[in-house]
Amino acid sequence: QVQLVESGGGLVQAGGSLRLSCAASGDTDCISAMGWYRQAPGKERELVAHITGGLITNYADSVKGRFTISRDGAADPLYLQMNSLEPEDTAVYYCNAEGLGWGPCDRSYWGKGILVSVSS
Q1: Model confidence over 97-119: pLDDT tens digits?
Q2: Of 17, 32, 33, 107, whose CB has the highest number of CB atoms within 10 Å?
Q3: Gyration radius (Cα) of the chain, Å
C-alpha cells in the first residue's frame, strides 16, 4: 500500500500564501501521477492540480496563475504552493496518487485531507 500524509494547511487571510506538502510512503513504486483535490461543504470533490510522472502539470481554471504543483519524484514530497488565496479556496485539500495500473498498483490512493481556511 501507499500512505499519503498532508501537511501545511491552516488559516490564512485573503491574499496570503500557504504551501501544502504530501509525503508518500509504502509502495511508492506504484505511484504514477499525483494530484491535489479539494472539497468544500456541500460540494463535490474537485481536481485542483495534477502532475504526471513526467512532471507535466495541469490546473483547475479557478487556480491557474495562483497555485503551483511540484514533485521531485515518486517517493519525494508533493507540494502545492498557493498564492493570492481567496475565501473561495477554503476547503479540505486531499493528496492523491494514481497507481501504475497493474498488479497491486491497480488503484489510486488518498490522504486523509487537510483544512485550508481563507478569511476575507
Answers
A1: 999 999 989 999 999 999 999 99
A2: 33
A3: 14
